[in-house]
Specification:
Layout: H1 2-14, H2 17-31, H3 40-51, E1 56-61, H4 69-88, E2 94-97, E3 107-108, E4 111-112, H5 113-127, E5 131-134, H6 142-156, E6 161-166, H7 172-178, E7 186-189, H8 204-220, E8 225-228, H9 232-244, E9 252-257, H10 262-270, E10 275-281, H11 286-295, H12 297-309
Parallel strand pairs: 1-2, 1-10, 2-5, 5-6, 6-7, 7-8, 8-9, 9-10
Antiparallel strand pairs: 3-4
This protein binds dihydroflavine-adenine dinucleotide.
Binding site for FAD: 136, 166, 190-192, 204, 229-230
InterPro entries: FAD-linked_oxidoreductase-like, PRODH_bac_arc, Proline_DH_dom, Proline_oxidase
Binding site for substrate: 98, 291-292
């Protein structure tokens, strides 16, 4: 409950336009701990550096709730440029996209613009043997995102497209089971948005318990599972679970956010687990940065200290 109150307070303050203006001016040096840079070359460079420690990258061009259709298509063009740049740098492209930023919910010649742009992006990634993960956003988008995921797996195959389920939503266990026929590649997360009690568990202990249930069910079903958390207890439990159930190491990977628990990321890679860091980059870093602050007071303290230093 306290987690919910803290998260709500941070996200409400962060959403204030004056706070945003001030923050944008002052916080970029601090945001760089969590964001690889503002352009493609810094994103590609970040992947190369992580690869030296045996950690793979998952690139994410920042931008969400983009309003005009033209800007959504321009955003998709930029993701395609990113995929090309990664391929040219010798990296198998692995990117994440938010369907809202490429036009989900906007019609274009009788079809959803988000779906059309996602097709172009996944088409390009699959040309290079790459992968695109459809991030999960706030709950009004869950149904449409899962439907579009189903369509896209049908067109490109589950080796080129995956999506995300959030353990804070009551519905996720059922959603997971409903996708089984696709043998889907799913990233399991706890969930980062401010959601009402009508749809999401208010208590963290329930979110954590549901997280384990989701991961275990997906692993047991034999599908590729991305265990995306920094929660060490859960990570240890998953290690024990896979050992006990004879689940091979190439059926799952641990995923964490760029700049968070780098020590743990390296440690897991050294132990021979697959590890991937989610690497955001781009000029539109503010909303992403606010969610990281909302996740833990420790990060808020880091920002306040940084601002006081000047
Ligand atoms: P939890 O919040 O319980 O934290 C466990 C421990 O990890 C904490 O005690 C702390 O030590 C450490 N920790 C966690 N967050 C930290 C932070 N920001 N800074 C420093 N330490 C931190 N969400 C979503 O809604 N849709 C999505 O598509 C995605 N995608 C995604 C991809 C990847 C690769 C990751 C890792 C996460 C996401 N998320 C997400 C975010 C996710 O929902 C969640 O908000 C964060 O991962 C934080 O939750 P944890 O699972 O780490 O646990």
């Amino acid at each position: 409950m306290i987690d919910q109150i803290y998260r709500k307070a941070v996200l409400t303050v962060a959403g204030n336009q004056k706070v945003e203006e001030l923050a944008r001016a002052r916080m970029w040096p601090l945001a760089q701990r969590f964001v690889a840079g503002e352009d493609i070359s810094s994103a590609v460079q970040a992947v190369k550096e992580l690869e030296q420690d045996g950690i793979q990258g998952n690139l994410d061009l920042l931008g969400e709730f983009i309003d005009s259709p033209a800007r959504c298509t321009e955003f998709a063009d930029n993701v395609i440029r990113l995929i090309e740049a990664a391929h040219q740098a010798g990296i198998t492209p692995y990117v994440s996209i938010k369907l809202s930023s490429v036009g989900q919910g906007k019609q274009d010649a009788g079809e959803d613009l988000g779906l059309k742009n996602a097709r172009r992006i996944i088409g390009k990634a699959s040309e290079y043997g790459g992968f695109v993960c459809l991030d999960m956003e706030d709950h009004p988008r869950t149904d449409i995102t899962l439907q579009q995921f189903r369509t896209l797996v049908g067109e490109f195959g589950n080796q080129h497209v995956g999506t995300v389920l959030q353990s804070y939503l009551y519905r996720s266990l059922q959603d997971r089971a409903g996708l089984d026929d696709l043998h889907p590649n799913i990233r399991m997360v706890k969930g980062a948005y401010l959601e009402p009690e009508t749809v999401a568990y208010p208590d963290k202990s329930d979110v954590d318990q549901n997280y384990r249930r989701l991961v275990y069910a997906h692993l047991k079903a034999g599908h590729y599972t991305n265990v995306a958390t920094h929660d060490e207890q859960i990570i240890d439990d998953v290690k024990r679970f896979v050992l006990a159930h004879g689940i091979p190491r190439d059926q799952f990977e641990f995923q964490m956010l760029y700049g968070i628990r780098r020590d743990l990321q390296k440690e897991l890679a050294q132990e021979g687990y697959r590890v991937r860091a989610y690497i955001p980059y781009g000029r539109d870093w503010y909303a992403y940065f606010s969610r990281r602050i909302a996740e833990t007071p420790r990060n808020a303290a880091f920002v306040v200290q940084g601002m006081l230093k000047g």
